[in-house]
Amino acid sequence: DQQVKQNSPSLSVQEGRISILNCDYTNSMFDYFLWYKKYPAEGPTFLISISSIKDKNEDGRFTVFLNKSAKHLSLHIVPSQPGDSAVYFCAATPMNRDDKIIFGKGTRLHILP
Amino acid sequence: EPEVTQTPSHQVTQMGQEVILRCVPISNHLYFYWYRQILGQKVEFLVSFYNNEISEKSEIFDDQFSVERPDGSNFTLKIRSTKLEDSAMYFCASSSRSSYNSPLHFGNGTRLTVT
Questions:
Q1: Residues forming beta bridges with residue A29, ordered by sequence position
Q2: Cis peptide before B2 (omega within 30 of 0)
Q3: pLDDT attached to residue B7
């Protein structure tokens, strides 16, 4: 039962261009969404989050957009840098069940020189 | 920057054996978690722990699993009788409050291989 779906297992983007990672969710009870970044041999690292009361949150080169009606969120990275090459996990927290996070399968982002 | 540390980084065990995975959360954090990631699959929630008791567990976390905070610093995950399908990367995480507004900080994981 995939409540959080990342349909693109991998994505390649030219350095300096925009990277867009997509995520869909099925559970309408989710009200808080997060993106984690993971390098090989390391644990996931928190990147950015958004509450369901917002539709956009920006932090430097990273912006997350939330479309509640479509149950879709996306992470934009601009400009993309070589150090952005990693696996990106979309995650969500159910309303009133804030002690666990539901992760997607991840998207591997390759930044090309 | 304080970090979550996990030991060992890689554990190989035979099916049916008990394993204990160890974690030292960030010192002022109060909420502790175990997640796992089977190779090529998503990161899955196992259990959350607060105030010396389990606050939430998933269907994966059956009677073969247990967690303990034996002292003020360590947080352990025990698997009593390992199965082949327990082979995965196990991540410990901690946060200063519930995950809603305080992101989890993950350790680098323990790779468990059951043969």
A1: none
A2: no
A3: 95
